[in-house]
Backbone:
């Protein structure tokens, strides 16, 4: 599993995005038309319980314009957005949130909604807790709100990476010491940041520290194998190391 995880992220840092142009078969039919909907309306519900609705025509046009959503070789959502999403259609922060929501929706169908439901929920919760911890430390901000919409896409991609490994989420060694060090790192961040936090005082500060440590407790409980741990560390250091 470790090799698959590292190889995929290494390759993505070196290669360019695959071409977005859709090749038609000899009949002139778009090969991605198999993903077209026959429903009058497609409703996509986000993890934040918002709903994006597309008419049949809008949904099928979306697939025509963004074949990367149904590609046979899914890539990291950040990479796809950089290549194909950062334009007038999805160029705003809210537009980027929507792009990531669509990415997660399509990849979720590919991965298997029920097959990976538990792993999907676990990774989403771990990532959301990490986001919340740093949101507390920073006293909020739009970055953390937008991350809330994008986390399902990050989690779904890592579910896809997991699906490629034949060992299927099993450990070859004891991760308890590595996990302990990572959990200690999170608690140390909370302790250090709280020591220089002069915006909260008294009981309010105590309550904030308790809430952050409760989030760490849940992360500690959810990380049960090396893949969970590597995903947590990757997400943490990729998106919060410069905050």
Residues:
């Amino acid at each position: 599993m470790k090799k698959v995880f590292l190889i995929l992220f290494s390759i993505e840092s070196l290669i360019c995005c695959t071409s977005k142009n859709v090749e038609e078969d000899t009949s002139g039919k778009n090969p991605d038309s198999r993903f077209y909907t026959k429903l009058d309306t497609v409703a996509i519900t986000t993890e934040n319980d918002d709903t994006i609705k597309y008419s049949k025509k809008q949904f099928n046009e979306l697939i025509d314009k963004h074949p990367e959503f149904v590609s046979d070789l899914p890539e990291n959502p950040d990479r796809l957005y950089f290549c194909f999403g950062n334009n007038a259609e999805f160029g705003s922060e809210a537009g980027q949130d929507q792009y990531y929501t669509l990415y997660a929706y399509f990849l979720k169908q590919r991965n298997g909604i029920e097959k990976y439901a538990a792993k999907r929920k676990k990774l989403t919760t771990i990532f959301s807790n990490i986001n919340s911890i740093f949101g507390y430390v920073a006293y909020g901000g739009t970055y953390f709100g937008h991350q809330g919409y994008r986390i399902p896409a990050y989690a779904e991609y890592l579910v896809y990476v997991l699906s490629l490994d034949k060992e299927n989420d099993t450990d070859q060694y004891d991760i308890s010491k590595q996990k302990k060090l990572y959990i200690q790192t999170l608690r140390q961040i909370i302790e250090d940041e709280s020591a220089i936090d002069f915006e909260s005082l008294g009981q309010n500060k105590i309550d904030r520290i308790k809430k952050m440590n409760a989030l760490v407790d849940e992360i500690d409980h959810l990380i049960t194998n090396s893949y969970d741990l590597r995903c947590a560390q990757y997400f943490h250091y990729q998106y919060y190391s410069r905050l």
Q: What stands out?
A: DSSP finds nine helices and two strands in the chain. The mean pLDDT is 88. The radius of gyration is 20 Å. The longest helix spans residues 142-163.
